[in-house]
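Subgroup meeting minutes
Present: P.N., E.W., G.H.
Scribe: E.W.

1. P.N. recapped why we're keeping a running log of single-chain structure predictions: easier to compare across weeks, and new members can see raw inputs and outputs side by side.
2. G.H. added today's entry (90 aa).
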Amino acid sequence: LARALDELAEAGYWRIGLAGEASDTLGQALVKVRPALVLGAEGPGMRHNTGAHCDQLARLPISPAMESLNVSNAAAIALYAAAEAREATG
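Output recorded in log:
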């Protein structure tokens, strides 16, 4: 996975890892970049080495009352946000 993430960077993608503890939101991270979204596993989340190979970590802006979303829901929301950001920037 680390090698694949390095190849994405070489191809010009900005690797955004979804992590609940990140300070930036996904919307902030998607500004004028060609994103490659990186998600962790169900349960334990993203491994440290995977996060270290991302250019930026970002979180979904969910209620503080919710600890996290399952990975399929997070992926759906993140893909929708990326599509909207791409359309907005042309």
